[in-house]
Amino acid sequence: MLVYYIIGYRKKVVKQNLMIAFPEKSEQERVRIAKDFYHKFIDSLIETIKLLSAPVSFFEKRFTGNWNFVDEFYDSGKSVQLHLGHNFNWEWGNVVLQKITRYQVLGVYMPISNKSFDRLFQKIRSRAGTKMLSAHNMSKDFLPFRGTQYCLGLVADQSPSKMQNAGWFDFFNRKTAFTMGPAKNAIRNDTVVIFAFITRPKRGYYDVSFSLASDGPANTNEEALTKKFVVYLEDVIRNNPSMWLWSHRRWKHVWKGEES
Q: Which phi and psi (to 5°) does residue 178 adopt?
């Protein structure tokens, strides 16, 4: 594979991450996961181009799942938070979800430094009606939707930008820093929390599985809710290892003991 053998995009990071996560596997097994990951990574980049021109019906046929599970909470008057990891191919899922759900979908994104690319991706991600909130100005961007019913999509395995607010959890054999923001937001607004993971039955087709994490987060705490996601995330990644973004520098922060 060209991207693995020649281009080697973040190959060192991928190899280190797989070694941390799967020390019990042979080198051959980890290389196989890496190659499969790169295959899906390239496919996802190509598939993103489809978002520029293909009709929504194209994605509806190719992205299945228990979509109606999200709307089960709409009549209760509650809003919903979706917590997922760096998982292929959420870009397609975003388009289908907004088409199907009665909720207004809100997506939190990390602005791209290149302004032209940033505008392009905002256009792609909002084409079906999703409202995008900048991770840098989330509180301000969220204000128009406070008091309304919404479905907020969050990539909840981001490495924390502010380590003083991070929580440390056992994740793939290592103490790992997780942002507590998603749990904090859910508890503050008492939004239903749903975990999601995407699988790929065959090339060009995806399936999302939603499962209830909490329908009353106000009755729990940030640490417990975040830990629940961490356990869930490790489980679904172990079952579908090549579907997670191994080039993401997930273990760049090092646990320094209780004083951290």
A: -125, 145
The dihedral built from the CA positions of residue 169, 174, 177 and 181, taken in this order, carries a sign that is negative
Q: Where are the domains of the chain?
A: 62-240
- Residue 182 and residue 154 in contact, taking contact as beta carbons nearer than 8 Å: yes
Give the whole-angstrom CA distance, residue 225 versus residue 241. Answer: 23
Q: What is the pLDDT of residue 113?
A: 80
Taking only the tens place, the pLDDT of each residue in 88-119 is 999 999 999 999 999 999 998 887 788 887 78
Coil, strand or helix: which one is 218? helix
130/132 Cα distance (integer angstroms): 6
Q: In whole angstroms, what is the distance from residue 138 CA to residue 126 CA?
A: 16
Strand 174-179 to strand 166-171: parallel, antiparallel, or no bridges (unpaired)? antiparallel
Stated pTM of the model: 0.91
Q: CA-CA distance, 153 to 85, in Å (whole number)? A: 11
